[in-house]
Batch of 2 targets.
Target 1
Amino acid sequence: MASQKTYLDTSGLYCLLVPGDARHPRAVGVMQEARRIFYTTDWVIGETVNLLTARHRAHLAQGFLRHLEGSSGLQIIYGSRELFEEAKALLLKYDDHPFSFTDCVSFAVMRSLKIKDALTSDRHFKVMGFEVLLN
């Protein structure tokens, strides 16, 4: 069976990193599926760290950042001028939806890499035609 590309969004990473979250078991289960290749962006990493810190879980944010240093199982897509412009175009095109800029960066990356699955609970991904793995 071919590997399946899976995008890690902020809400998915939060569920994965916080054991007390109701969706934590499902998030862990998805991460343990051997056939998946995981992708995220530096934007999502920053947003996840901010969320953990804001919710008084800075220790989890620090552990998460340390884990990323040695992780070979996650491809991080770093921002570029082109990615910024694609995200801006999406945000302006879908001005009737309350997408965050980080969401639009994620949508642009997913389209470019032909990723269909997102480890997220964010319904905006479903609106854009992606499969939301944490319902």
Target 2
Amino acid sequence: MSADPRVRRTVRVDHGLCSGTGNCVRALPAVFRLEDRKAVPHPPAEWADVDPDELRAVADACPWAAIEVEEQPDG
């Protein structure tokens, strides 16, 4: 499923929970990078075309539940 342009997605990483293993970075380098051994999302414009199901799956797979994906109607 491709990204719906009518939905705005926000990705947050709780650095208190993130252990910096980089699983999310390896799975979706278009969305995440490591900074100071913590996952950090790239600006949304850089990953606007990422499959939302894949993004949610990567967030759900985080062993520390450090990744939150919020979806809101745009407009």
